[in-house]
Amino acid sequence: MKKSLTQALGFCAALLVTLAACKKDEVRAVLQPGASPTLTSSGNSFVLTQNNSANRAVIYTWTPVTFGYPAVVDYSLQFDVKGGDFSKPYVIDAGAKLADTLSVSDLNAAFQSKGLVSTSGTPTPAQMDVRVIASVGPAAPSVNSVATTFTATPYSFCAQPAKSQSWSIIGPGGVDWNTDVPMTYNCLSKTFTYSGQMNAGDFKFRYGADWTANLGGASSTGGPLTQDGPNLTITKAGSYTIVLTPGPLDPATKKSTGGSFTIK
Question: Is 20 within the bounds of a domain?
């Protein structure tokens, strides 16, 4: 009996030691962030325009970060004015990816958020710092890369007029005589711009997708335009930038009072 009791007590003691060891092993799983990520970019100087707002501006890539145990690591790009402390950064979340492609609009929004967009009418270059930060949760310490500086000339966002109040390109030089090619309005210069492919063929400008106000001219290489003027012509298909400066509409007839254009 005494021997059985002694064996039972020995078993219980061994079990307690085992449980204590397991508990001790559990608390050893602590957060151990690895090396900081290294951030690289496809460029460090940009000219941003609203006409190209949907185009790719830059690709950022970075090295992965480990935290000492299997975990989903979230990355985000942070932007601040040059020399800023990132206490109130502009943030673009990248999720678990190790790269992110930003459009012209994305990058311009970062400059707008920090008040770095010129309102004088002339776009002005400005500088920002960018870094990538890695995190496994709000309660855990994060790890960030060294900040790098880049330069861009941002644009002041201009709300586009409705189709019924906008100028467009019409004709086979664009698509055909039934399809309007939209032009982008510039609030500062009061002009309409199209940048892209043009076909060899005739074209004109018209207002509100209607022929009441339309513009043509004698020279297809740029110059003055008149209401109901002759067709303009693209002699060779290719990529062009066309800038239209329209005159005001006649309030009585709703027709154009003329204008001018450039083509490059």
Answer: no
